[in-house]
Amino acid sequence: MKFIASVFDKLRKSPKRVVFPEGTEPRILRAAARFFKLGLGTPVLLGAHDAIEAAAAREQVNLDHIGIIDPVHAEDLPLFCERLEKLKRYRDVGKATTESIMVKPNYFGAMMVQYGQADAIVTGADEEASSTLRPLLQLISPLPHLKSVSSCMALDLSNKRYGERGVMFFADCAVIPEPTVDQLADIAVETGITCRRLTGMKPRIAMLSFTTHSSGRLPGPAKVAAATALARQRASQRGIEMEIDGEMQADTAILPELGAKKAPQSLVAGRANVLIFPDLASSNIAVKLVQYLAGAETYGQLLLGLARPCADLSRGATEDDILGVAAIVALEAVEARKLIHH
């Protein structure tokens, strides 16, 4: 069974409410309609009613059972403005300014998710990452044990030899340009948690560099090796079962024969299902190449470090990508709720 099909099957048992701030975007409209039709939950589109209805008519999308909220005329707008004014950043900006901010769909959607009026948010299909990330980072509570927010990407490869029957996770492909040792360690642990939460498989995390278990003389590999040690420590302190190894070259991480040769004692080498890249440049380039040259199905970016499930799409995301990401963040909401109840 394909990765995303397994996500659909799990989600149908506990459908969720997902908000899409870009309510007139054609790919969003089509994905939202399919989200409901597949029994995954209730999509909510943000924007002016007439604009959404006109866009849906052009795309021949049936809006039955799809929620539409216009932030400008929403009953909750005054309440959301009050909540915004309580944030230190907005405390002294004045009522007119807070209202002008809250009517923006990304801010309104983030507030919905923060206060439980939606279970997850999917945005970024038609906007710059900076304009989509800012509301999420400002309005949605961070996880208390983390100092920074990052992201990961879920991939389903056509070659099932790699990862866990073709399923892998790459991080951080979108948020932190030059992660510190501390941040790399957090990225590794949080991506491993996401991997297990979505797939049930044990995370085998490779911390990537351009050397494998070197003597540590070069600053780049030494930084990754230090992050590896710190990630192991944090996973152990939190009682999370995952294998973490590095620094390690990419081919050593994924090729069994090379892993056995270059790192024979490693439980990760040749078997990695999570790849942690040393910086944003390498990770973003890698995921785009795998997506377009190798035909991988990619789902993300899934934000790590926030208390609510959020995704920031690539502007190149297809309708299928958007549907898959919406299902993933909705399933994250299901799994997070299970953790709370236990």
Helix % is: 40-55%
Low-confidence stretches: none
CATH class of the largest domain: Alpha Beta
The CATH topology of the largest domain is given as: Rossmann fold
Determine the strand fraction and express it as a percent band. 15-25%
Domain unit count:
2
Number of helices: 13
Mean of residue pLDDT? Answer: 92
User: What would you call the shape?
Assistant: globular
Tell me the series of helices and strands, N- to C-terminal. Answer: HEHEHEHHHEHEEHEHEHHEHEEH
Alpha carbon gyration radius: 20 Å
The CATH homologous superfamily of the largest domain is termed Isocitrate/Isopropylmalate dehydrogenase-like
Task: Output the structural class.
Answer: alpha/beta
CATH structural architecture of the largest domain? 3-Layer(aba) Sandwich
Give a count of the beta strands, DSSP E runs of length 2 or more.
11
Strand order of the largest sheet: 8-7-9-6-5-10
* First-residue to last-residue Cα separation: 29 Å
Largest sheet: 6 strands, mixed
